[in-house]
From TrEMBL:
One of its GO terms (cellular component) is outer membrane-bounded periplasmic space. It comes from the Bacteria. It holds the Pfam family CsgG. This is Outer membrane insertion C-terminal signal domain protein. Keywords: Cell membrane, Lipoprotein, Membrane, Palmitate, Signal. Signal peptide: none annotated. InterPro entries: Curli_assmbl/transp-comp_CsgG (IPR005534), OMP/PagP_B-barrel (IPR011250). PROSITE patterns: PROKAR_LIPOPROTEIN. The keyword DNA repair does not apply.
Length: 451
């Protein structure tokens, strides 16, 4: 082997060894351990104590999505959401120290067992006259019922990735974001009134990272190596965190609405918890209002101003990139589609050969791919013409770019390819191809939105 081949081989071996250590590849059996703690489990335990614990019943807190686990090869018979959500909710209620959960999900089993105890006691008391017939204590009854469930599980809410490869050496990463929604409501058993209802969203993130080497180091000698790791957030943990957040919100909002009372000796803790939930609600409201700034909804007009860089692609070599200006108006039909009319002052130049100034007019139909996002790509196509002292020259154009929205303004970065129907933009007619121009633009738009 040459020294370069030896170096590549040693590098690949060290790379694989270090990655195996880094990724902590399982090498044996693991012992059972207690359930994983979540970030919200400790704040729930630190909530201000209640004046008196509330007896609550949970008949069934279940998966209401009916959705099956997504697979690459089609449908699966496994559900996407765990089916034991009632057990998770009861555990969270117990951890909160605000509620006394009572058995209602399998109340039939409880009643059957109590009947067995009564029958056994009666038979035993008949055989043993000295034994007094002791009655079973009554069951606790709930003053509040907790209802709701997981009502939504949306997959691939956000997906993306990034990768690069150069001479057979490359790496890539991909991510996927899902989302679950949990509703929880407290119902009075005295009159059936819904005392409080809360709603919580939780995202589930999955990521993967891959690296590979595929390279011929010599004739009939191929070096190939790859490594990867995938990390998926457990759905059960995500559901547990969402339920914990819902219980926390239910307690604090119930205190605010005077549905239940905290311990009078914990005023500071109560005020701190209420202020924290108010601050979080302010952030949610802020993001909701902020979304209105860049969510292009309904019909509206906007004006565009842009600086450009233009390059002629004609019959001469050594084209020169020249500056230009563009102004236009845009009309949005809806969130996705708009039509825009613009006029630009451009210069098409070949170094020391030709330099011509044109006024270009473009009419484009544009498609905004992600109108609800702050940052969105777009595509457009249309037709137009360029003109100077000579008759106008017709053309058509294709292009695309990105738009970043800020309140009533947006910043646009775009590229456009003009294809002419004439071959004399540079005063020379040669070959079968007509003249073309490549244009890059950076500008700003102001949106006149309906209030």
């Amino acid at each position: 082997m040459k020294w370069t081949h030896q170096f590549l081989f040693l590098f690949a071996t060290a790379f694989i060894t270090s990655c195996a250590t880094l990724l902590k590849i399982p090498d044996g059996k693991s012992d059972p351990k207690l359930g994983e703690k979540t970030n919200l489990q400790f704040p729930i335990k630190k909530l201000p104590p209640p004046k008196e614990k509330i007896v609550v019943g949970v008949y069934k807190f279940r998966d209401q999505t009916g959705q099956y686990k997504p697979t690459e090869n089609g449908s699966s018979f496994s559900t996407a959401i765990p089916q034991g959500i009632t057990s998770i909710l009861i555990k969270v209620l117990e951890d909160s120290n605000w509620f006394i959960p009572i058995e209602r999900e399998n109340v039939a089993n409880l009643l059957n067992e109590r009947q067995i105890i009564r029958t056994t006691k009666q038979e035993y008391s008949q055989n043993n006259k000295n034994n007094s017939n002791q009655q079973l204590p009554p069951l606790l009854f709930a003053g509040v019922l907790l209802e709701g469930g997981v009502i939504s599980y949306d997959t691939n809410v956000l997906t993306g990735g990034l990768g690069a490869r150069y001479f057979g050496i490359g790496a890539s990463t991909q991510y996927r974001q899902d989302r679950i929604s949990v509703y929880l409501r407290a119902v009075s058993t005295m009159n059936g009134k819904v005392l409080k209802s809360v709603y919580v969203d939780k995202t589930i993130l999955s990521t993967t990272l891959n690296g590979s080497i595929f390279k011929y180091v010599d004739t009939e000698k191929l070096l190939e190596s790859e490594v990867g790791i995938t990390q998926n957030e457990p759905v059960q943990i995500a559901v547990k965190e969402a339920i914990e957040k819902a219980v926390q919100a239910l307690i604090i909002e119930g205190i605010q609405d005077k549905i239940w009372e905290p311990d009078p000796n914990s005023i500071k803790e109560t005020d701190a918890a209420i202020n924290a939930i108010k601050e979080e609600q302010k952030q949610v409201d802020f993001l909701a209002n902020k979304a209105k700034y860049y969510d292009v909804k309904g019909k509206h007009y906007s004006i565009i101003g842009m600086v450009e860089a233009n390059t002629l692609q004609g019959d001469y070599e050594s084209p020169t990139t020249t500056p230009g200006l563009r102004f236009g108006i845009r009309y949005n039909f809806n969130r996705f589609w708009n039509i825009n009319l613009s006029s630009a002052f451009i210069t098409l130049e070949n170094k020391e050969i030709v330099r011509r100034r044109y006024q270009a007019t473009d009419l484009n139909l544009e498609y905004l791919m992600l109108p609800a996002n702050k940052f969105s790509p777009f595509l457009f196509a249309g037709g137009g013409f360029i003109v100077n002292r000579e008759p106008m020259k017709f053309k058509y154009q294709l292009g695309g770019g990105f738009e970043y929205f800020l309140k009533n303004f947006s910043i646009r970065l775009q590229s456009q390819y003009d294809l002419g129907f004439d071959d004399d933009w540079d005063t020379k007619i040669n070959g079968d191809l007509n003249d073309r121009a490549l244009r890059f633009g950076l500008g700003i738009s102001y949106h006149f939105r309906k209030k």
